[in-house]
UniProtKB/TrEMBL annotation:
First-tier enzyme category under EC: oxidoreductase
GO molecular function annotations of the record: monooxygenase activity
Family statement: Belongs to the FMO family.
Matching PROSITE patterns: PROKAR_LIPOPROTEIN
Keyword Oxidoreductase attributed: yes
Identification of the protein by name: Flavin-containing monooxygenase
Cofactor: FAD
Its EC number(s): 1.-.-.-
InterPro entries: FAD/NAD-bd_sf, Flavin_mOase-like, FMO-like
Classification via SUPFAM superfamilies: FAD/NAD(P)-binding domain
Record Pfam families: FMO-like
Length: 156
């Protein structure tokens, strides 16, 4: 009976904006802590700024300093300063390896977010402080646009 109740308990949903390196790391961390992350990515693929750079762009730091701590570069990457496509492939393989892609909502641009708790709303510091109070009864509202259709949806 305890197992059933544990499975039925609703996980806390965490919204993450962007499926670049930081968004993927945040997603993996949230999953490891038992949260249910949703990554809103405005593009149709992951990679963040690496999707916007030209193909001849290379890492500016040696690859051992630009890798996920739990996911080393594959042995097939021999260049010390890999090019854009190789970096993208590395980021994509990280996301696949840890099954992060299932948490990503592609073509979803976050237009705005707000917090409401029934007494405070808006963007002043008191609201943001209350939003991170673990005893808060408030909720976040996220306005998301589907980039291909330009339709919008509010999520709470």
């Amino acid at each position: 009976m305890a197992d059933f109740n544990e499975r039925e308990r609703r996980k806390e949903v965490v919204a993450i904006i962007g499926a670049g390196i930081s968004g993927l790391l945040a997603c993996k961390y949230c999953l490891s802590k038992g949260f249910d992350p949703i990554v809103f990515e405005s593009e149709s693929s992951i990679g963040g700024v690496w999707t916007k750079t030209i193909g001849s762009t290379k890492l500016q730091t040696p690859k051992p300093f630009y890798q996920f701590s739990d996911f080393p570069w594959p042995d097939s990457v021999t260049e010390m300063f890999p090019a854009q496509q190789t970096v993208l492939e590395y980021i994509e393989s990280y996301a696949r390896h840890f099954d992060l892609v299932r948490c990503i909502q592609f073509n979803s641009k976050v237009l705005s977010l707000s917090y409401e708790d029934g007494k405070l709303s808006g963007y002043n510091w008191n609201v943001w402080g209350e939003a991170f109070n673990t005893n808060s009864k408030g909720k976040w509202n996220i306005n998301v646009q589907d980039t291909p259709t330009l339709s919008t949806q509010e999520r709470s």
